[in-house]
Amino acid sequence: xxxxxVTAECYPVAKVxxxxxxxxxxxxxxxxxxxxxxxxxxxxxxxxLDKHQWDVVHKDKARLGDYQFNFTVIREKQQSxxxxxxxxxxxxxxxxxxxxxxxxxxxxxxAFQTAAATWLxxxxxxxxxxxxxxxxxxxxxxxxxxxxxxxxxxNVPTVLTVHNAEYQGWLDWSHSQWLPAxxxxxxxxxxWNKTINPLASAIKNAWAVTTVSPSYLTELRYQSNGxxxxxxxxxxxxxxxxxxxxxxxxxxETDVLIDNHFNVKxxxxxxxAAKKAVAANFGLNPDKPLFTFIGRLVGExxxxxxxxxxxxxxxxxxGKANVIVLGSGEPEIEAGLTGLKxxxxxxxxxxxxxxxxxxxxxxxxxDFLLMPSRVEPCGLNQMYALRYGTVPxxxxxxxxxxxxxxxxxxxxxxxxxQASVGDILMTLNRAMELYQQPKKLEALRxxxxxxxxxxxxxxxxxIDLYQSLISRGQPxxxxx
Length: 480
Hints:
By secondary structure, the chain is α/β, with parallel strands linked by helices.
């Protein structure tokens, strides 16, 4: 089976969140099963670009409204990610250091999708499946069906995976000229709530829709930033497939980004050695329990609750616990977390920004990982934590609910119900009680590390879905 993934992110090329991790792993594991899995993404100016060798495989032209642009598709020679990686270059539009955050992001991703479809139209034999990820690639199913320049692709099965429905790519109809020529009788298939909505369009036009956990799919039918009725209407073609993690990359026994390696048998001594290394870097006492938060500092992650929650906890513990926060995001949250450094020296620190190496070191060295998310489609951090014997403390939402069961129910972590300072503080105190029971904590760590969340376990579900679409041969006709 020939599978092409289309995405805005892919680790280690360019990553902002979990989408990048998934895109960097899923094609590799599909290829391991004997399929021809490939991925195309924009060519950003990241260090990965300069460190690898490339072949030019296609040059062409496309249009963004009145603007005609040239584009180039390059392929990485070494196949270092374990699959064919293609980058699409549009000079001046995609070749920038950041993935998102530019005022012309709508034009950038429309141009990327138009060029990607133009490239696919040139293939002698199109892919068996085109797998689109989030709204940045959500217009492709519509282009394939109703774009006048892409007739060769109209029967190519498309799958949309919703990694995060909060972001939908809304676009005013006054900008419809940016889209390639299409059958205007079908314009309703682009629209939701009187705007062009790429995510909604993908849900309507893709042959199948998946979410990154079963619980998230259920939640989207009553909380999806305005798309609740659409998810309810299209539920027949939707399924929830829990993400996996790259068990080769996230392995405390072989992780190249940490210095102190360990396995399930040596977890207690190994984690303490890893914690000592982290504590030395941050001026903390390794004999105390170490709590961490790793992620984007945004309301979706309930990071706005961190300053008050951590202040109350550290004040209550009076020097008996350490906390390190790693992340960046909303300026007010960053300011609040920075301010805590002056009040709790020697037991608290905040690393503003993101460091892949430090994140691995924290998973290895921390005792507890806090995830109080308001929205968590799947969550990978809690699976990384399990792999490294770090106890997840999670809110019962989305994929967190699917992967973590409370230790009170003979589970593998600590769960709480509300994204509130009170529930967070209660759970932090439960963690302190657990830390005072070393035998129970060691048994829990060994249990956590034995859980299999690797991609091998779930990738076959995608293959089964693809095969069902290919066997069907024709997509269902969407209603406007």
